[in-house]
Amino acid sequence: MNNNIMNHKVLKLFSEISKIPRESGNEKTISDWIKAWAEERNLQVKQDEVYDLIIKKPASSGFEDHPAVLMQAHIDMVCEKNSDSTHDFAKDPIELDFDGEWIRSASGTTLGADDGIGVAAALAVLDDDELQHPPLEVVFTVQEETTFAGASGVDISGCEAMRMINLDHADERELIVGSCGGTGAEFTMPLERETGIPAGMKAFRIRLTGLQGGHSGEDIHRGRGNAISLLLRLLEAPQLRVVSIHGGTNRLAIPREAEAVVLAEDEDAVNRCVSDAKAVFRKEYSGAAPDLDITVVEVNRGEGGADTETESPLTDASFRKLAAVLRLYPNGIVQMNGNLEGLVESSDNIGIVTVEGDRLTLVSEVRGAYRTTVDDIVKTIEALKEMVGAEVRYFDGYVPWEFAAESTLRPLAVNTYKKLFGGEMKELALHAGLECGFFADKKPGMDIISIGPDCRSFHSPEERVRAESVVHFYELLIEMLKKL
C-alpha cells in the first residue's frame, strides 16, 4: 500500500474534516462547513438549533421507486492528548500521519476517525452523482461523545426511511446489530484534612503514565489497567500522606495517567514505594502497558497550582474512606453476556477522579445491554453513596439498541461483504453506546445496522485507522446502496 491511497475520496474528505475543530459540544464550525458544502451541491439540507444536520439526495435514475435509506454518523470527536502535546483542540487542525498502513494524528492527540471516517464516507456518497442508490437521507448528529443531545433531540419526522445504516463502527469484518445503553455518574464525597502540616514533612508529586487507555466500552475487556486504580494502590503505602489526586480526563476514556501530591518524612522511603509499585505494575501489565512508568519529584510548598493550594494532608480516616470508595465503586467489567460468548454485557469506567480541598469527585460511565442492568449498577452506586454520605448526579443517559429478530439489511451486508472480499462478517452486539437506540425509539420497527473500517484505540492518542480498510468500508457501503 502506498501514499496514493490517501487520494481516495473518503480519505481526502476526512483530511478536510480534520482541519476543522470539532470537540464534542463545539460543533458549530464543522456543521456550518458541511451545510455550505451540501448547499454548493444543491442538496436539500436542514440544520437545527444544536447543529444537527439532515441532508437529502434524490434517488439515482431507475431507483426512484425504491424505499429511502438513512445513513447516520456523528460530527463530534473525543479530544484527548498526551501530556507533552501542545495541540489546542479549539483552533488547531489535526495533522494526519500515514505510515503506509495506518493513519494517526501527528501531534499526540486523538485522530477523530471516530466518527470522522463515517462522516467522510457519507459525504463521498452524496458527492458522487455516478453512484446507483435509492433516495438518501443523511443525518449528522452532535455531542455523541458527551450528552447524546443530537441523537436524542434530532427531528426525523420528515424522514421517510425505515432502513438505516449507522457508520460508526471500528472493524470492517463486524456487523453491529445492537448496542448498550448507559449513563454518566458524578459521585462527590466530603473529605477532612489535618489542621496543619505534620512537622518534618516534605511534599512530592508522583505521576503514573504509560498505560494504553482506550474506549471505556469497547476496550474495557482488554486488561489495559486504570491509572486511577493503580495509583491508589501505591498511595496506600503507610509512609505517604495524600494531599491531592488528579486522574483521567474523560469518563468515556480508560485513564492512561494519574498523579498525586503527597507528604512524607523520608525521601528514600517515597522512592522505595514508587520503585516497588513500578516493579509490580510492570510485571502485571508487561504485555498491555510496556511503557508504564511512575516518577516522583519533590515540590516546593505553594508551587504547582490548584493541587497544592492546601498543603495539609487528608486525615487518616478520610483517606481510608476515600480508598474504600475507589475500591468498592463499580469499575471495569460487571457482568459478561450470557447469550453471546466473549461479549461484555455491563460495565462501569471510573474515568476521572479529583481530590481537592474538602471534596472527592469521581466521574464514571455506566454501560449495559439492557435498561435493567444499567439500573442494577446504579443501585450499587446508590448503596455506596448511602454508606459513605456522598451525593450522586446522573447525566447524559442513553437508551440501548436491542437486537431485532427480523432484518433485511443484516443478510445483505454479510453476503455483500463475502462477495466483495471473500471473508465472513460476524454479527455482534457492541459494548458501547451507539446512537442507533435513539433512532429505533423514534421509528419503531426501523431496520438498523452499523458498519465501519478497522480502527484501534478510540478515545486515546493511539487512535488510528487502517487506510485500506476505509476503502473496503466504502466499497461495501456503495455496493449495498446499489442493491437497495
SSE blueprint and pairings:
Layout lengths: L8 H9 L10 H13 L3 E4 L5 E5 L11 E6 L21 E3 L3 E4 L7 H15 L8 E6 L7 H5 L9 E4 L7 E6 L1 E10 L11 E8 L17 H9 L5 E7 L10 E7 L2 H18 L8 E7 L16 H13 L3 E5 L7 E13 L2 E10 L2 H18 L2 E8 L10 H13 L4 E5 L5 H7 L4 E4 L4 E2 L7 E3 H17 L1
Parallel strand pairs: 3-6, 3-7, 7-19, 8-18
Antiparallel strand pairs: 1-2, 2-6, 4-5, 5-21, 9-16, 9-17, 10-12, 10-13, 11-12, 11-15, 14-15, 15-16, 20-21
Helix pairs in contact: 1-3, 9-11
Helical content, roughly?
A: 25-40%
Number of strands: 21
Q: What is the CATH fold-level name of the largest domain? A: Aminopeptidase
Shape: elongated
Low-confidence stretches: 304-309
| Superfamily (CATH H level) name of the largest domain | Zn peptidases
Distance between the termini: 31 Å
Number of domains: 2
- Average pLDDT works out at 94
| Beta-strand content estimate | 25-35%
The biggest beta sheet, please? 9 strands, antiparallel
Q: Would you state the CATH class of the largest domain? A: Alpha Beta
Provide a count of the helices: 11
CATH architectural type of the largest domain? 3-Layer(aba) Sandwich
Output the structural class: alpha+beta
Task: Report the radius of gyration as a whole number of Å.
Answer: 24 Å
